[in-house]
Amino acid sequence: MEQARDTKITSSLVLHQVPLDGKRAIISKAYELLPPGGSLHIADFGEQRTLLMRFLFGAVQQLDGVEYTQPNADGVLPEIMRDCGFSPVKETNVIPTFVGSISLYQAIKQ
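and the corresponding structure tokens:
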């Protein structure tokens, strides 16, 4: 059982560039691949909570497209993780950058 807790899947700055159905497919596949007790760790643009972060995130949206990036800016990733079966799902940190805020998420497969 110790080994299952050590099993991790990571994703860094990928999901904001993927269509909504692709975000769901990637997170669902991570859930499928992880053993019980394994964890998913995502570092990506998350909910843009302030006017400044929303304004700065506009640069990312210009490059990667509003259609793909807006769900992240609206905070959809934790919802998708829960819908795929992960529990608990935590946003462990929010890092403001010059192009918007990046959220760090941790999700456990029970």
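(Above: one complete record from the training split.) The first strand starts at residue 8 and ends at 12.
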